[in-house]
Automatic annotation (TrEMBL):
Name by which UniProt lists this protein: Sugar ABC transporter substrate-binding protein
UniProt key word Signal: yes
Originating species: Streptomyces thermoviolaceus subsp. thermoviolaceus
Transmembrane portions of the chain: none
Signal peptide: 1-24
UniProt key word Transferase: no
Keywords, sorted A to Z: Cell membrane, Lipoprotein, Membrane, Palmitate, Signal
InterPro entries, per database record: Bact_solute-bd_prot1, SBP, TAT_signal
SUPFAM superfamilies according to UniProt: Periplasmic binding protein-like II (SSF53850)
Pfam families documented for this protein: SBP_bac_1 (PF01547)
Domain of life: Bacteria
Amino acid sequence: MPGRHSRRSVLAAISALPLTGALSACSGSGSASTGAGSGETSGTKGRTTVTFWSALRGSQEVVDAFNRTHDHIRVDFEQIPAGGQGGYLKLSNAARAGNAPDIATIEYPQLPGFVIDGVVRDITGAVSDELRAELLPQSLDQTTFDGRVYSVPLDVEPMVLHYRKDLFDRFGLDVPTTWDEFAEVARAVRRTGGDRRITVFPTDGMTLMAALCWQAGAQWFDISRGAWNVSMADAPTRKVAAYWQRLIDEDLVHCNATGSRLYDAQVGNGLILTRLSGAWDAGAQMNAHPEQKGQWRIAPLPQWDPSRPALGMHGGSTFAVTEDSRHPEAAMEFIAWQVSHPDALKARLSSGTSSMYPAATGLVPVGRAAFDRTYYGGQDIYGLFEQEARTIGKGWVWGPRMTATGSIMQDAFARAGAGSGTLLSSMRAAQAGTMPDLKALGLATTQHST
């Protein structure tokens, strides 16, 4: 497999010092010893051709815009399915066969796993100072391990509170600014009778639970002290789990999957008054429920301590250069253009309504100009996102096998929602189920159970 050390050698390096310069030796800084850097070309008229896989909407439009304006590089694009059993499985299988694309879209939670598996390469030396300066530090933090960069962020998604202003007005409710106030509003909504609740606790919401715990200061995974240290029931997580367990026990929230027809009906019928999610969800709401135009607004997520505002991130994607790439320099040129050039974001947004918050903060005016504010009553939601993104905490680390970890957690959440177990026992089950995967990878591990 071109440019790739064996799986065993990669794991041996990580076991000693996870996600560090030892792993970067798999490709070298920038990894430009092959492909475009050695003068290889492909395609017609001497152009270098690179392949790009993505499940993101608007990617074809971005590729078309790039190909129209660049003569020396051509991007061949393939739309792949989203999810662990779709595009990620396809990417893993292609990497094992030695024919992964030059560029792949990888969400933040899945990136460490692809790094450990040797699928993506160290691009530290290929990320220019200019590009680094354009990116929100919290986004680059999520793609950097021990000072080594493995992908370039496209967007960063601060958690916010989406709320039904018309229903808040009807019931005389104030928008909560703290979690204590949120619980009081939840009780007030419950007293109105009927099936309305303040929100849904998502039984399929591993990333949402992570964002809530991130906000509270949790650190599920830590890669200091030469090992993967796992603590998915630390004090901040216990606080978050106890809070939401209380809301569930008092029947103040619905408890079901958000990726379901039931949830869509709950939103459509006004049975939930708030949605807790990333900035991207504003556009998703507009697409899913155009009939609710003018009824929704967005506010900052409630805080535990308003004097020290903090947030977690919910959603977001990155672009990585694979170890199989024969043209890493050309691949990086396309990635840098895709995440930082106004024409790239304009092309992506031309595919439909989106409220993604770009990691390159200079593109915020492009997103703001393209967004139709009338759905949210004229509110400048990008101004709010800009303010909130600065409070995303740095230092959060995703685990090496978040798809498997999330599956265990969500199965336990579903049981807890049905009255069998609790959210805290779900977190402990997720930790217990995670450890065998880490050990099977040959990683040095510790765990802290509290």
